[in-house]
Amino acid sequence: MATTNGSILATQSWDLTDFVVNKGHGVKGLSEMGLKSLPKQFHQPLEERFSEKKILDQVSIPLIDMSKWESPEVAKSICDTAENWGFFQIVNHGVPLEVLERVKEATHRFFALPAEEKRKYSKENSPINNVRYGSSFVPHVERALEWKDFLSLFYVSEEETSAFWPPVCKDEMLEYMRSSEVLIRRLMHVLVKGLNVKRIDEIREPMLLGSRRVNLNYYPMCPNPELTVGVGRHSDISTFTILLQDDIGGLHVRKDNGTEWIHVAPISGSLIINVGDALQIMSNGRYKSVEHCVIANGSQNRISVPLFVNPKPEAILCPFPEVLANGEKPLYKPVLCADYSRHFYTKAHDGKKTIDFAKISDI
Ligand code: OGA
Ligand code: NI
Q1: MF terms per GO, please (predicted)?
Q2: Best of 87, 154, 217 to mutate for ligand 1, by most ligand atoms within 8 A of CB?
Q3: Sign of torsion, CA 202 74 176 338?
């Protein structure tokens, strides 16, 4: 089949991508066929493979106890960590552990549905854009596919949720979102205070946390995990992300923009927080949206459930004036949040490149 964009779907075995993507079996379906070797569509270029990466043992991202979140010490450690690491784990975060357990069960329930049920939510079939089941990230533009299935749910209203989100998981996902609100506001309060922003007015609030997206990720057991990735290197475009993972592990975070990577070891009952590009922009680069990726696993299935706290699509992203008050030059120009997301969702994962979209180019 002729192709102009080097798309994997167009150039290589049609049947496999049809089975995974169009028929809705996902990579989970492939994994369950008991393949002995990884199909070539998933072979990542050498430089993206994990064998090429240096993983630091003995180093972990900071762990913060949120029970005294308002104390100056805890607030300082949250802001320092957002500045120096961009990633941390939290315990005593106030989201009930039963809620998190129900979210994990619901995630397994969704992916256990037959392919015919799941494909009702695929790009072609889903009645709305805000509910999307798929595999990899943007299959038709990727040079190599990622070993992951997902269900992505963009929250608009309770009405839309009850009409369109899959019944096997919608109550649990809504409960997750509702129970995280207090935590979200606490984190926001602490983080913006650290930027000298005294007031969250009606312009700032939607710019910081005007929308939510929750993703259910499924990384099935993989033949030849060393040849592929679960998720390629990227930074999130959110203000910040709250990530729930199970006890399998596989998420890695880049250390200091260098060549070394840190494994985010699962801690039971914890949540992972990471700064996204939107907050990096609003803080004029003070808080860091750090690159991360997920390795595939040769012996176990893994799930994760990120809750992306995003600006409203209509919001204009730009550095806060308070951050520039000391004469600091803005590193980013104002961009419409919807344009920024469109830019992210139409190209393959490519490390920290998304933020170049908002960078002022002469510096
Ligand atoms: C993401 C992501 C990490 C994980 O969905 O953006 O980075 O552990 N997920 O699944
Ligand atoms: Ni991510």
Answers
A1: 4-coumaroyl 2'-hydroxylase activity; metal ion binding
A2: 217
A3: positive
Domain that holds residue 81: 17-358
Residue 287 has, within 13 A of its CA and on its CB side, a CA count of: 34
Please give the distance, rounded to the nearest whole angstrom, from the Cα atom of residue 7 to the centre of ligand 1: 24
3-class DSSP state for residue 174?
helix
33 within a domain of the structure (yes/no): yes
Q: Specify the pLDDT at position 361.
A: 83
Q: How far is the CA of 180 from the centre of ligand 1 (A)?
A: 18
| Total domain count, the chain | 1
Is residue 231 a part of any domain in this protein?
A: yes
Closest-approaching ligand to the CA atom of 307:
1
Contact between residue 23 and residue 135 where contact means Cβ atoms under 8 Å apart: no
- What is the three-class DSSP state of 155? strand
Report the atom number in ligand 1 closest to the C-alpha of 272.
8
The alpha carbon of 235 and the centre of ligand 2 are apart by a number of angstroms equal to: 6
Under a CB-based contact definition with an 8 Å cutoff, are residues 248 and 297 in contact? yes
> Which protein residue's CA is at the shortest distance from atom 1 of ligand 1?
306
Dihedral over Cα of 276, 59, 95, 183: its sign:
negative
The CATH number that applies at residue 296 is 2.60.120.330
> Ligand 1: distance of its center to the CA of 304 in Å?
7
Number of neighbours of residue 206 by Cβ within 10 angstroms? 16
Per-residue model confidence (pLDDT) at position 3: 37
In a domain, 6, yes or no: no
Give the chain's end-to-end CA distance (angstroms, integer).
43
Please determine, for residue 10, whether its predicted confidence score (pLDDT) is greater than 80.
no
Distance (angstroms) between ligand 1 centre and the Cα of 275 equals 13
Residue at 178 is within a domain: yes
Q: What is the pLDDT of residues 245-302, one digit of tens each?
A: 999 999 999 999 899 999 999 999 999 999 999 999 999 999 999 999 999 999 999 9
